[in-house]
Here is the input.
Amino acid sequence: MKLITIGSSKLANIKLKSSFVSSLHAEILLLDNGDIILTDKGSKNGTYVQNQRVEPEKDITVRRGDSIRFADVYLDWNMIPTMPVLDPTKVKGVYGVGSNFRNKYQLVGGTVSRFHATFKEMKNGQWFIRDHSRNGTTLNGVRLTPEMDYRVKAKDVIVCGGVPCTNPVPGGSNGLIWKLAVAAVVVVGLAFGIKELIGNGGFGKTPKPEDMITGSALVYGAYHYTVTLDDDPFIGIIPDWPQKYEFGRDNLKGGVFLKNTMNATMTKSDKEYIAEHWEPFSYFGTAFFISEDGRMATNRHVATPWYGVENDYEVSNEIKQQMILLRNNAFTINELRTYRDLENLNDTPLGSLIYMYLTNYVDKSQILNEIQRFNGYIMRYKNSSVRISGERDYIGVAITNHKYSTYLEFDRCTVVKVSDNPEIDLAIMQMNSGALPASVKFVYDLDKCLMNPKDLKPQTKTYWSIGYPSGIMLGLDNLNGGMQPTIHEVKVSKLPGEYTFQLQGENIGGCSGSPICDRKGHLIGVIWGKSTKLATGSYGVHAKYVKEMNDKIY
Here is the structure.
């Protein structure tokens, strides 16, 4: 474990030179299991993750590469060391000890540190403990040297900051209790399983709705648009020339907002406005579990929401207009003729890069010849067509029945595969933990999904869609206080097409990616859009394509 302090103080591990940064602004804690914990230490001007201000003195989990800002200074991840990677062939697991709720062995006491110590379980059956604390850890009464591994045996007595800690090693008195506990769990589990089989008519039982809803998860994501030029002759020639241009959202005025604006009128206040009000676009959707290792299915437009932006006239036209303005401001004339024209390039940030190149890297006797060559480059740059795509800033899922105080506590996931067929709006995601959350009691079995779309007959059966309409707003609107999806009854309203089918039943924003299933939990399809012509109509993509995509991954 390693603690890194961040602030303007000379004593901070990472010193930031800004009058807006507090002396001890924040802390980053690198845990032995690979987790990275960020804590704002009550700073005046705040700590921001993905442009969202975090609550002071509250630990949040972040991921290497996240956009983190301390007041007006962005974190340079190159300054954060990488913890040694544990050998998975030798290490079975790493478990935290301390007062923080993230620890497997949580202790209570004012002398116990948040992340006091770490247990390491080896695949050969051996256990080790490492102390990270201020008040120390003792093993059989002997205080441990911090940040060193000590072998733990079954009968050893462990005390953390004066508070006794459970010995996790099987064997001895603890080991006997551990074995009896395991045996009891097995017996109870078998009894419960038999009861479930008998009580629900044996194999092929109908799952309970309260179990089925745990198979759906709320997706929260953030992204921004990226723009590249099809013909930018300056890339590879001019040092520090931008490779791309980033567009997000103006959180004060709304609309599309260019982050790295480079024009002649940019002032210090302009830069401060961008730092304060530029943020990525955010959205909600739904995903559902399809494997025991935490794999999920959803829509392509949930996993990569910038897909198809070229067909969105309002957004793409606004971006293109801002790119024209950027390039015209960068070069107010189309042709350089004199040294005075060359000097005038210094009036713009992009133009100054060209001026520095021509005056620092080109022999003075050749400058006029180079100017002629660069005149052609300027015209190509200004007239180039643009290519609009996007980049993901964040994506995570909220598990049904879990309680959250901020989206930063959501479980992180990764987009594994996105359909390359424009007609199939599907994607596969994976929990970063590589495991199914313990509270999920239902996983959609793709081997039992509907493989023949011709079996869908209009108005013959009632199906369920289980998702999160309106995202977190309705997801938390319940007596339980945890995340809860909504179950909608839907029917097929016409003969299906090759890739999709039409549904009678309203689905609104946030439902995208919801599973459509029968009462036995067999997957029929995935909600992908709302009809713009029918008041209560929506569309689904056939379940067979989920299975085909997932099979290709495996």
Notes: The two ends are 35 Å apart (CA to CA). The chain has ten helices and 33 strands. The first strand starts at residue 2 and ends at 7.
